[in-house]
Amino acid sequence: MQILPYKLATTNDNLTSRAGLLVIANIMSTIRLADTIDQHFPLPKSNRGFNPSIFLQTLILMHHEGSFHLDDVRHLSDDDALRTVLNLTDIPQACTLGNWLRKMGDNPDILKFWTRVNKTILKATLHKCKGITLDIDATEIIANKKEAKWTYKKNKGYMPMVGHIAETGQVLSCDFRQGNASPAKENFEFIKQCEQALPDTCFIQALRIDCAGYQTKIIRHCDEKNITYAIRALTTKGMKAHFNALKPELWEGFLNKDNELVVNQQTYRTSHCIGDYEKAFTLIVQRTKIIGQVEIDLEGSEVSDEAIVDGYIYRAIATNDVDKSNSEIIHWYNQRAEDSENRIKELKLDFGGDCLPCSDFNANGLYFLTCALSYNLFALMRQLLPESLADHRVITIRWRLYAIAGKVVKTGRQIFVKLKSEHQKLLAQVLDELRKFIPILD
Questions:
Q1: pLDDT for 143-161, tens place per residue?
Q2: N or C: which end of the chain has fewer CB within 10 A?
Q3: Residue-wise burial string across 362-373, b where 16 or more C-beta atoms lie within 10 A, e elsewhere
Q4: In this structure, are residues 7 and 364 in contact, taking their beta carbons and an 8 Å threshold?
Q5: Is residue 86 left, alpha or beta, with left meaning phi > 0 and alpha meaning psi from -120 to 50?
């Protein structure tokens, strides 16, 4: 066997493989995140305890680095070079992080504390955006925890509700729920929670939600608040019979985003009312011809979000937008898959939202909220990055920006971070862009 000609040796140089974390640390410093956290979260009762900003910023750095388990905090605590650059004098151990999550998670006002901190990030991001589009969706987190409940997908875990801002991709609010909670549970209350979570200068101008939001009080609330909505409608047995009885000439062709006719798909527009709410809304029906096999509804449910009748699949969208065409309404509603469902996947897969570390429900809820803070900071950073990096997920940012090797040299007056030439140019370019950012703070 041929042995490569090298020898192992040691060095006393102060080295780090995470020099690029300077970027996210710079953003947290620019918006004074630590001060905001310590202002709104309860401080320790002993002068020997860590401030809440120490815990949250440690978790945020771990999430951005790609570490989703509490034991991974040693990656930061063992990196003396990085701690020198970021002035991380205090790094809690894994057991200390877990104890804080459990203790703070039991605080009944924890969501209020988190919302106030999150508003600081949102305010910095939404300074040019007043009216936002709210996308709401529930997501399943599979977790084999002792107190976790069975979800409707027959997995043990949790079913948090997440509200996203379509324009920035950021999490507006969360409601961490047990797995057996219905996706339609308290959706109206969650919308009001999202309204209160917005900065004072912003408002909800549009709402998109799946059939869990097809409720009288939500539609009435949108009309009262002048919120444009697109909600997946439930189709009843009577509606199915009505759609099937329509004459062929009443159906319009469905156009794709390039304004081209889509084969085997048509749309139909009508008015409809729901429950005891007398004001009618527009119902956009889309039917797609079935090609090949299709699943048979053996249960024969009276109400569902789609109907299969005589070789067609029917889906409907309830809306109060009378200006857009049928095809435009459908495309606008379908965009929530990109603006919400894919963002939730990033929250769970890229920032550890599905790696809940504790057996305690409230502690896991706080951890999930912390993952949302990490994701929101990344969404803010992505707006400030150079064009060559701005469209990438954090997975790419980690190996192209965060995972830069550097040597830290500390003199009497200054700290130098020495990098390879191409890495120095990239990091300097990013930091120069960040220096142009002047956030609007309270």
A1: 988 888 999 888 999 999 9
A2: N
A3: bbbbbbbbbbbb
A4: no
A5: alpha
